[in-house]
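To the wet lab folks,

You asked to see what we're planning to order before we commit. Fair enough. Below is the target structure as tokens, and below that is the sequence we designed to fit it. If anything looks off to you, flag it before the synthesis order goes out.
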């Protein structure tokens, strides 16, 4: 595969934090991808909530299937633009490793528990997983990933956290949040592929769950246009196949839109290499029209799915599980494994321990420690 001049070239990587010898048959970014796939945190994603709690149905997206869909969309967009597909895949598969159980409800609750102890932020936690928390190598903590993969994983970061990263690793992955520069094109692409993926699969899961109806979706111009296109091509189509065909057309259109709009932005900015990309404005983008239609879909999903009373009820319960777990470990640290209980920074150790839990493990631990069952999350 030929990389464009502005792509991230694995042979010109800024390298790893711990010196490592190259291998003959894989590039540095392929090695990163492989390390991520073999990590413990990656396997846990299968039992972590995306929107619907893991136990609510076997066919809803989990963090794992979501991450695989982001990688697929990212690779499809990367190739025609001449970007590094392997780096896109590595970032996409790792982008949600730091997510708590119970989706955003879990992260919000943990952030509140950690308010006086530096807070909790899932992008920073994803970096913490690959830099520190994975225990797989004899010589160092973490997975020792290359700079470019770590840069892509740290999608957002507060100024205070960026400064703390910069103090520990001058010129490292925290710097761009202080200098207000951009990450690589591959990292920018993963952000957009994430948005394309969740907008599409949340429509599917929303309808599957019965919380959204096809009639409601008629209010959403982006979806409705492709539903009509699917019907024009297949007038007798209905039900689930019509839904899938409309989503398929919508996904294809968004992929092609990003490729065309980004190619045009690259032609006008003409970055000479990956570092010129970092100094330029954001270049991976939708066209203005698609950006607006995608925003309208996001607002629809927020109002009608993420804030649906049934989802809100479950997320309320999930927040309580996380808060009460945190309090229980504060009161009885010995209930955690000794590696966590013995750490000097106890609140951070508790946050790391809870963040690593799957939905059902958190539910079981909560039931064990409090004697109450809030969520029926695989509590046997
Ligand atoms: Mg995501």
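Sequence we intend to order:
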């Amino acid at each position: 595969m030929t990389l464009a001049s502005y792509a991230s070239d694995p042979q010109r990587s800024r390298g790893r934090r711990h010196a490592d010898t190259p291998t003959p048959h894989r590039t540095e970014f392929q090695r990163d991808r492989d390390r991520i796939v073999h990590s413990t945190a990656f396997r846990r994603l299968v039992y972590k909530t995306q929107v619907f709690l893991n136990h609510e149905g076997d066919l809803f997206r989990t963090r794992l299937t979501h991450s695989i869909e982001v990688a697929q969309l990212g690779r499809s967009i990367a190739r025609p633009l001449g970007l590094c597909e392997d780096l896109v895949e590595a970032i996409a598969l790792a982008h949600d490793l730091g997510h708590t159980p119970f989706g955003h409800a879990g992260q919000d609750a943990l952030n509140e528990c950690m308010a006086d102890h530096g807070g909790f932020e899932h992008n920073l936690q994803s970096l913490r997983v690959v830099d520190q928390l994975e225990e797989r190598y004899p010589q160092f903590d973490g997975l020792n990933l290359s700079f470019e993969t770590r840069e892509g994983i740290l999608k957002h970061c507060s100024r205070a956290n960026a400064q703390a990263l910069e103090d520990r690793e001058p010129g490292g992955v925290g710097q761009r949040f202080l200098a207000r520069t951009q990450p690589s094109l591959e990292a920018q692409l993963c952000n957009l592929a994430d948005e394309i993926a969740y907008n599409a699969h949340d429509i599917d899961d929303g309808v599957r769950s019965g919380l959204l109806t096809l009639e409601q979706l008629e209010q959403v111009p982006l979806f409705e246009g492709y539903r009509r296109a699917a019907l024009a091509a297949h007038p007798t189509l209905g039900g689930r196949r019509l839904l899938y065909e409309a989503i398929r057309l919508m996904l294809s259109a968004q992929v092609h839109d990003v490729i065309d709009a980004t190619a045009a932005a690259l032609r006008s900015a003409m970055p000479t290499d990956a570092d010129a990309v970092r100094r330029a404005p954001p270049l991976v983008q939708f066209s203005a029209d698609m950006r607006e239609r995608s925003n309208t879909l996001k607002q629809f999903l927020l109002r009608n799915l993420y804030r649906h009373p049934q989802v809100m009820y479950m997320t309320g319960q999930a927040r309580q599980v996380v808060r009460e777990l945190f309090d229980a470990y504060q009161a009885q640290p010995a209930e955690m494994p000794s590696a966590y209980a013995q750490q000097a920074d106890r609140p951070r150790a508790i946050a790391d321990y809870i963040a690593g839990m799957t939905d059902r493990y958190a539910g079981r631990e909560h039931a064990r420690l409090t004697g109450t069952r809030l969520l029926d999350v695989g509590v046997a």
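Structural context that might help your review: The two ends are 50 Å apart (CA to CA). The mean pLDDT is 94.

Thanks,
Computational group
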